[in-house]
Amino acid sequence: MEPFLRKRLAFLSFFWNKIWPAGVADPVSDRELEPRGAEFPAEPGSPPAPARLFRALSDFRARCAGELSVSRGDWLFALQEDGEYLFARRLSSPLCTGLVPITCVAKTSPEPLSDQPWYFGDISRTQAQQLLLSAANAPGAFLVRPSESRRGDYSLSVRAQAKVCHYRISMAEDGGLYLQKGQCFSSLEELLSYYKANWKLLQNPLLQPCMPQKSQEQDQWERPRSEFVLRRKLGQGFFGEVWEGLWLGSVPVAVKVIKSADMKLDDLAQEIRTLKSLRHERLIRLHAVCSTGEPVYIVTELMRKGSLQAYLGGPEGRTLSLPLLLSFACQVAEGMGYLEGRRIVHRDLAARNVLVGDNLACKVADFGLARLLKDDVYSPSSSSKIPVKWTAPEAANYCIFSQKSNVWSFGVFLYEVFTYGQCPYEGMSNHETLQQVMQGYRLPRPPTCPAEVYVLMLECWKGSPEERPAFSVLQEKLGDISRCFYPTCT
């Protein structure tokens, strides 16, 4: 081996003279190894010959200048094989050549993974979940990606209804690939073919490769998280925290910070899609989203006075006159009328989800529970969180939501407005509230509430959803009341 190394790596002559003084023969072999087949691939982009391609089975750290450090999973092109060592070129960056123990590598054949529709080479576990749970993919969609926890392994991610299952594809000592020990395959394609036919071993069928979404660069809403600085926590809800922040160091914004553990990924994707599609002066305006990685940011305009519930209960809110309270009611009815026209049900309309700006403009916010209705009603899973005291009885009992259940919630919202943010059904548990409502109990008229407005509240709380008014009617009647009582304020 000495002559071969001296010839091929002449620049290390000082090192070779140290370990092989002149006149001492190579103890492994005193013959010169012919560099047969030692050429690199003809073109930088052309694939290596399969017989010369190896993969590192374990990490190896060079012990001297002639050896090559490799990490598990590295691809190597063999320049020369000789007994216990492989003289190879590492194909991953940085490109280097050197000696690697033959026990650390295994001969393999190249797989053009980038050409496979099921291979996603640069996404994380969270991104895989978001892709598979997107509207473009159905149960049975799958993808393969590099393992985040173990270099050289892969992960198989499969959509199973409303969740994603992840399976590690490990590399065996001989370079083969397996999901279950004892069932080894020479390639990912061979492995996937087997589990497509024997999907019961995974308990999830592999039906079609995951459909990719358009690149984030094409999405005008997607911005890097580094553009935003969080300054002050404003509040916390079911699905995350809300912060006051700065965009690009100068634009004040509100940032909703969401972790995947706090919200289902399909619910989160739905919230983002809903916000992007809505444009109305009485609805909170979306500025940007950061949906790559965690936590997810939903960035909206900043309403400096915070939620209407907190504002009404504070020193400034408690001094507000009835004309301003009526103005709040009219503004929210207008925003909900827009949602009604778009066939969107909010499912969590309450004073805490209405935000107030410096000029006392009100905007409906928090679409974490919003849904676009294909029919007249929407029935979520029984595990959904429901704000019982604001929820219509048919929705609380049977999880059937509609525009008319939104109207019921608007009646409770009016009660909050005219009690300056007081909690409805105070002193009652959720169970007691629902029982009382089913028996015909209705919230009493607040002392500051005009009788005409209380009549509208009772209409919102009709037991039969069909008897409740539309938001367009509520907006018109509230406007008439405001003009009748306070003509100079409208």
From TrEMBL:
Classification via SMART domains: SH2 (SM00252), SH3 (SM00326), TyrKc (SM00219)
Q: Which reaction does it catalyse?
A: L-tyrosyl-[protein] + ATP = O-phospho-L-tyrosyl-[protein] + ADP + H(+)
Give start and end of each Protein kinase domain.
Answer: 228-486
Keywords in UniProt for this one?
ATP-binding, Kinase, Nucleotide-binding, SH2 domain, SH3 domain, Signal, Transferase, Tyrosine-protein kinase
Q: Which residue intervals define the domain SH3 in the entry?
A: 49-110
Pfam families linked to this entry: PK_Tyr_Ser-Thr, SH2
Q: Which residues form the signal peptide?
A: 1-25
By what name is this protein known? Tyrosine-protein kinase
Name the source organism: Erinaceus europaeus (Western European hedgehog)
